[in-house]
């Protein structure tokens, strides 16, 4: 092929276009953040900080305390991870180390199915079928409580946790396993004492990504947690309704007047969410980058 | 000596139990929705307008709305996503700029869907003046879908052996010609898989469309890209939480149509992937 001027110009145009598209992703992150700031920062000027970080969220009375929402998100996210971490890691170990081939062939697509179920469908399932079970088992007056939300969230974060943990186990060199077995350890001892500890940084990444997924989840949580904006304190907090940051935005943004204090307050919650998930993902990414750099030694 | 093997047996039993605890609810969810939803599905449900405050009739406008939104998303997300993937796999060198792009992609993937909704409301609906419309909703969903498409498409492009590019260059092809005629066709199945996976995520999302496009009740089809529309995920939310006295068949029927759509796209994507993986000769 001769490189006519036309080919060279076309080449230049296409390459520039691709470069611009490549950089646009960074642009999107920045634009998203700037937009949240633009619409959310006025809230910090219009609302006293005492009020904004207070314990009562009643926008009709100009009370914009975000603390119950932040704690509500934290409560169900942490509970979800407490449920999902052992389940997810055990399932990943099962898939990678123990399961016969046929079981693996069933499990992996099943987990992909779970990852594909839209959150609103899980929320619907949680409302209609899980909530009554929670109500009867724990004798709560209603099944739409923090625990139900945490349960649904745990299953939503399982696919992330399982696949990242699987990758981490996969990255443990076969030599480690051989060495363990050669020392006379059983397969179980090798898994428990050698393989899982060697994969722990990857498992930590799995936990962080799972948390990021859980804290940003909106629809399912809004449908099953009862949405009462009260401080989730006390021992029975798990079995009372809570309200998360995400659900507050989703439930109220449709009804506020654009440009009102309430509108800016909801964007301020958006800023908080953006910053939290940004930090979680940054932390997860830094462990992944570190692993890649160490890769040559393995 | 014996204890160790008892411990092993107990350990393996626990792992198996964990896997069952993960799988059984998944089966239950899918089976329940398929069985109870199937009772509601008939020709009218799929092709009629909703009537009587959505308590009767069909969900046709929601189905059409979801299809239209997904196509709109594809229109924006495919060129941007595949272009971004080509840049990362074929052009980018390992500089701080490239690293910041990768970081941006990881962070885009982690931004909560409702925050995308806020962003879409602020930029597309209000500032750019599209109003609550299909355009605003599609653009919002497209940006949300980008990280999925970019990372799967990049993986597919990287899987094409370097020799293919070398041979193309040795025959006098320019870099773009190599990409256009050699690398892209080889990576196409993987890219298509990634695009479908991204789009089905967009089709199932509710939070980003809440304030950008979704109509609570609009018993007609959208007339222009600047029109609002109903959509399946939002409709499921509405019929299960916002309307009292809703017959449960309509709820389960809507859930089944949405789940069926998403899962069948999922199967298409994974089938393409495994079919071409088996057939490829490198």
Keywords:
heterodimer, A: 298 residues, mainly alpha, MetI-like fold, two-stranded antiparallel ribbon, 12 helices, 76% helix, disordered C terminus, B: 282 residues, 2 strands
Helix and strand topology:
The complex is a heterodimer of chains A (298) and B (282).
Chain A: H1 5-46, H2 49-52, E1 57-58, E2 63-64, H3 67-98, H4 101-116, H5 119-138, H6 146-170, H7 174-182, H8 187-198, H9 200-216, H10 219-224, H11 245-252, H12 261-294
Antiparallel strand pairs in A: 1-2
Helix pairs in contact in A: 1-12, 3-6, 3-9, 4-6, 5-6, 6-9, 7-8, 9-12, 11-12
Chain B: H1 2-38, H2 43-47, E1 50-51, E2 56-57, H3 60-91, H4 96-110, H5 113-127, H6 134-158, H7 162-170, H8 175-204, H9 207-210, H10 232-242, H11 248-279
Antiparallel strand pairs in B: 1-2
Produce a short descriptive summary:
Chain A is mainly α and 298 residues long. Chain A is 76% helix and 1% strand.
